[in-house]
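Notes from hallway chat w/ T.B., transcribed later so I don't forget. T.B. wanted the structure written out for a chain they're using in a teaching module, and asked if we could keep both sequence and structure tokens in one place. Agreed to drop them here.
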Amino acid sequence: MLQRLVNISVYVLLGITLQATVGLTSDVNDPYFVAGVVEFRPDFIGLTTAQLIANHTAAYKEIFASPEALETDIVVFPEGTLNNDFQPTYVPAAEDAVIPCLLANQSSRYEDFLVELSCAARTNRKYLVINLTEKENCADNAAFDPRPCATNGLNIYNTNVVFDREGRVISRYRKVNIYVEQKNTTYQPEYAIFDTDFGVRFAQFICFDLLFYTPAEELVVKYGIKNVIFTASFISETPFLTAVQLQQSWAWGNNVTVLAAGSSYPLSGATGSGIYAGSSGSLTATMVANVGVRQLLVARVPKNEHTGSRLEAVNTRQFAAASTAPLTGLRMLRDPQLDNFNSQLLNLTASSVIALQQCAEDLCCTLTAETTASQSSYGNGSAAGAYQYRFGVFTGQRSYEKEQYSTVAICGMYACTDDTVASCGLLFPANTTIQPAFAFKRLNIAGSFKKAERLLLMPNTLNLNFYSLQPAQVAWEVTDKCKSYETSIDLKASADNLLTFGIYANYYDSSAATGLAGSMLVMLSCLLLWTGTFAIDFLHIRFTDC
């Protein structure tokens, strides 16, 4: 305890000294703010819980205080890389305006790591977002939650915490959609929204929440949020839901800024971080392999509506979209419904022109393509392989490794290792050099998606490096046709390294999705699309009189 008080006192003194010398990077009048997201490799083996948390806390502070972070206004760390169930901490509510750093000499209620990170935010004069395992005394919440409590008298939450530049807790969010984890949920869903001194309002949620209406879509639709913080330990799934692919698709479909920080443990499937400026695409992103990394990604983010010309002038892409080596050494799940798609093999050569239609239930989609010769080679393995492609359509229910479901509608072209359906969504082994048999000179997929009150339509693309195509490479358009949305995705630049190209629709309220397969389990809530009789240019939606 004495050492703890000494450490915290040093932090407080440093904070008082540095407050005068560390200025604000952005203010309310600046057109940009500077954000950082951390792809963070956690430690697991050979450490006690106390050692693990101490190591993670020290690494957090080192990254947060690094020269690379100097100009950032806000830094986001990922889900599940700080503490664990064996050493949870209490977390103050935002309305209590607590600065844990200043309470170190008065109270032992908060664990050392929470106090130290509060002090780090105060010392470095930055907003800091962390994810942790939180404990709460059931008795403290008994008036609002009639459910029975655990025998130890505690609720255990998967929680995001936001510190301001003073080290004050200004936002606390407890995860709503639990994914294969032994955690509590709040009796009523929480909506964590906070304002910053640089003039940006944020909301936050965690990992699996991204696939559901509450709170993720609801924050955008009901509360008008344009800037989202997303912490994750996301296990990628081919061909439509790999991490950066989904992050960019969701940001583009909603035209919102997303700051996404991912845990980095590729051998278990977890990786994927980035900063996305809505329909202007990625500002920076990373997908890594093998042992994982501890890496800070930084970008200047426009505060107002996204325009590509402004972004290109101030941002340098940090992801390896042009790499010649496909990403390997990463565990991937495969979409369990892929075998149930209505699909057909694309018989393509180096000089093909095709046009075809595929339907499932009430959803019909078209694919048109023209191919040309490819001289590319990806990787340096001892074996050679070339992906084949299927065009598939699916409407219906899908699960996520447990009893939670989504109702989705998909039109997509996806890669297969041979001509069988069973090979689709699989990847060639790491020792394979990919030698494409052709390149797509032109490629368009279009579909008529039945209207629903609660629906999100997203462009969905993926290349061999597990990044999505950017707006310079692909065009996305949605047109309101009264009873349906006519949706299309169009390739603007030749490509021979595609794994996925298509349209992904999430029908959050299946009762509104008439024509989708049968009677389906309704998700936790829904997404309300803004409708009207006028143009919304940034969404590329053209409204017509109905």
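Follow-up for T.B.: The CA atoms of residues 398 and 406 lie 5 Å apart. Might be a good example for the class.
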